[in-house]
Write a structure and sequence with these properties.
Number of helices: 13
Number of strands: 9
Distance between the termini: 7 Å
Length: 299
């Protein structure tokens, strides 16, 4: 059975640890020599596109990035048809999509056709698992492990938050999430996560304080309402005073200084955001190695 990666729990905890270990080991076997990897982008991308294209090249392959309008998922062609066509050319398909269901339909179509080409999620409205891999790698590099580390997420419980929280729980970390009322996680979705509407409570004694933009791509019409709702949720020096003295700051970027995070924090000595961004490359490279090896063994 072909292994796909639509959310971080598509890996078992032991497999997640193996992917992180491979990322740390900087493995670059030419498993993609003479092969292509299709990368679909329905949404803009900076870190994801650069990291994934370079990762494919480092494994000997040829990345082909495709804009959303070039394939037109469900406007020009059904998502299923796009997946089957691209699978005829490429060793793997990565996609950044508006609707998570598009990824599910693509994988279902390939599995039904017995086309052994893994699909991996480069971001959807529901999940951002490649970002979570880079986040966990960054935490391991700083603390030597993820077990027992307290991660506080402050802000909108968006796709980044959900994948991060899920990955942290799988890796043995503690997770506290602070969101305004109406913008939080469903408690039934991730029962191991501590939730609150008080940022200081979430950040108390935290080893990692993490935030993201208050208005994600596709939510621009909500910007004013969100700015009002998230007032008081900025990660600044006052909030960091509640965290562990050795706490680090993380942000998946792009950062809006003066909104979800203050300039002196994101650019300060506790910030690991640039290391975190750089880790997108080894994380996705290790993921590709895992997916391609799993698919080969399954066949």
């Amino acid at each position: 059975m072909t292994r796909h990666f639509l959310e971080i729990d598509d890996l078992a905890p032991a497999e997640l640890n193996e992917v992180l270990r491979m990322a740390e080991a900087d493995l670059r076997p030419p498993v993609l020599a003479g092969r292509g990897v299709a990368l679909i982008f329905e949404k803009p991308s900076a870190r994801t596109r650069n990291a994934t294209e370079v990762a494919v090249a480092q494994l000997g392959g040829h990345p082909v990035s495709i804009r959303g309008e070039e394939v037109g998922l469900d406007t020009r062609e059904p998502a299923e048809d796009v997946a089957r066509v691209l699978a005829g050319y490429h060793a793997a398909i990565g996609a950044r999509v508006m609707d998570h269901a598009s990824l599910e339909r693509m994988t279902a179509a390939l599995d039904a056709a017995a086309m052994e080409v893994p699909v991996f999620n480069l971001l959807s409205d529901r999940a951002h698992p490649c970002q979570a891999l880079a986040d966990l790698l960054t935490i391991r590099q700083r603390f030597g492990a993820t077990e027992g580390v307290k991660v506080a997420y402050v802000g909108d419980a968006n796709n980044v938050c959900r994948s991060l929280a899920l990955g942290c729980l799988m890796a043995g970390a503690q997770v506290a999430v602070a969101c305004p009322d109406g913008y939080g996680l469903d408690p039934a979705e991730l029962p191991g996560v501590s939730t609150t509407s008080d940022p200081a409570e979430a950040a108390s004694d935290a080893d990692v304080v993490y935030t993201d933009v208050w208005t994600s791509m596709g939510q621009e019409a909500e910007e004013k309402a969100r700015a009002a709702a998230f007032s008081g949720f900025q990660v600044d020096r006052a909030l960091m005073a509640h965290a562990s003295p050795k706490a680090i700051v993380m942000h998946c970027l792009p950062a809006h200084r003066g909104q979800e995070i203050s300039a002196d924090v994101v650019d300060g000595p506790q910030s690991l955001v640039w290391q975190q961004a750089a880790n997108r490359l080894p994380a996705v490279r290790a993921l590709l190695l895992f997916l391609l090896d799993s698919s080969r063994r399954a066949s």
